[in-house]
Write a structure and sequence with these properties.
With about 300 residues, the protein is an all-alpha fold. Helix content is about 80%, strand content about 0%.
Length: about 300
Amino acid sequence: MNEVSEKPSVGIALRILSGFLFAGMSICIKAMSAEIPVGEIVFFRSAFALIPLVIFLWLRKEFPHGLATRRPLGHLLRSSLGAAAMFASFASIARLPLAEATLLSYLSPTFTSIAGVLLLSERVTIWRVGGVLLGLTGVLVLVWPETGNGDLNGDRLWGYVFGLLMGILTACALIMVRSLSRTENPGAIAFYFVIASMLGGIATIPFGWVMPDSYGLMMLILAGLLGGFAHIAMTLAFRHAEASLLAPFEYLAIIWPVIADTLLFDTPLSVAFLTALPLVLAGAAMAAFEGRRHWKKR
């Protein structure tokens, strides 16, 4: 079931497609973030992502029996961390240019590397240290022009805070995925995460939901469907090609938010972003390479 097939070109195409679909999802979220509360966006994103996910699992004959689990508490922790990361990610997208919010998401391999050392007693290597230093340097370069001059407003500051929080929460969730994947069906891990995110979104109703107009409802539904299909494309990509082959194509996905900011949201790219971009991506690549090499050995 988890063996890698000999179709690397298909895997690469699917990985590029997943990046494009995730970018489309983020564009929908960004377009609605000024009118729709984050909790409501999380609910719609999760609820409509459930449709392609269930169809995919059913076609693979993994629904519903593939959802059986021996580690319900592990799923609860992983799903809660993932749902919290989604809240933080969407809050960051609402407050920052899409390209900057997306760039901060590439810090998750760096934080995963740190979590592996602290929580799993993994070795400290030059790859891990280099990845962490490059990633954090990139963040400092990104925020310093505004913080150093005292020009950073509260909304953007919270955008950076939520972006960093998203990276930390995603790293912790990925550590749990690594643990769960030893005994649990990947489809079950994804399914319970989506359910937890839906419940988290519903829990925000007392804090204020709004009734979207037809355009807003269409964008919310589209965000969910795009996110669901993006996860499926990414899952299939790793079934057709090795992670080391797909790694460079993960970082090509930053192109789409850059284009969206320029053409759709009329947001110019800052010098700080262009300077931070290679640092953060290089740090993420180093940390991800070391993590994959370690887990491949194990």
